[in-house]
Design a protein that fits this description.
binds 2'-deoxycytidine-5'-monophosphate; 219 residues; Rossmann fold; 10 helices; 56% helix; alpha/beta; five-stranded parallel beta sheet; 2 domains
């Protein structure tokens, strides 16, 4: 008798890209939870590289040194509460323009995506470079004003002080850096679904994303 075939859950990779504070982190976490996948915020890998350089008193502008540190990162040990500091984000955007650093981190990110049962990765170049064969790709965006307002409210909600105009200027500067760099600039993959959270909000974006993933899983 032929034994019944065990149903093997498919290996799913979901790519989520977009500019800072567009809601891609929240969306990615919700998707990972819903589909029981692992989640990697790839921005943390650039932040951890910059942080490790600073901790060891190493320069931020030596590409070979930064690439060696990037190659030694342990992705299971990324502490968001430490790495989310504003100065670390600034330092991360400097190492993120170095091709050798990107090569080392992309390799580690692909290793993460390849582990069963699959993963949701969010960043700037997931659909275009890291996982071009992802089952579904999203490009999450929102107007700079909406993103600045969200970040402002988040800081104030946590008891901090925030200057809306300064946050907006910072977001616009980061957008220019992320979209303007030569290696892997921020842009939607040609087959990415665009989710603009300016009007729809993040909850509605999650519902739309879930429908698109379910449809892709049926085919
Ligand atoms: O999303 P974030 O602020 O944590 O990202 C930190 C920096 O890393 C930011 O300058 C963009 C860059 N980054 C990148 O170049 N590629 C990614 N896949 C993720 C982040």
């Amino acid at each position: 008798m032929i034994p019944p075939r065990k149903s093997v859950p498919p290996h799913i990779v979901i790519a989520v890209d977009g500019p800072a504070a567009a809601g891609k982190g929240t969306l990615s976490r919700r998707l990972a939870q819903h589909y029981r996948l692992r989640h990697l915020d790839t921005g943390l890998t650039y932040r951890a590289t910059a942080h490790a350089l600073g901790e060891r008193g190493l320069p931020l502008d030596d590409e070979d040194v930064a690439a060696r540190i990037a190659g030694d990162l342990d992705l299971s040990d990324l502490d968001r509460s430490v790495l989310s500091a504003h100065e670390i984000g600034e330092a991360a955007s400097k190492v993120a323009v170095m091709p050798k650093v990107r090569k080392a981190l992309v390799e580690a990110q692909r290793g993460f995506a390849a582990m069963p049962p699959g993963a949701v990765l969010d960043g700037r170049d997931i659909g275009t470079v890291v996982c071009p064969d992802a089952l579904v790709k999203f490009y999450v965006t929102a107007s700079p004003q909406t993103r600045a307002r969200r970040r402002h409210d988040e800081i104030v909600g946590n008891g901090g002080h925030a200057d809306l105009a300064a946050i907006l200027a910072d977001i616009e500067r980061r957008d220019a850096r992320d979209t303007g760099r030569t290696d892997s600039p921020l842009r939607p993959a040609s087959d990415a679904h665009l989710l603009d959270t300016t009007e729809m909000g993040i909850e509605a974006a999650f519902e739309a994303a879930r429908n698109l993933v379910d449809t892709a899983l049926e085919h």
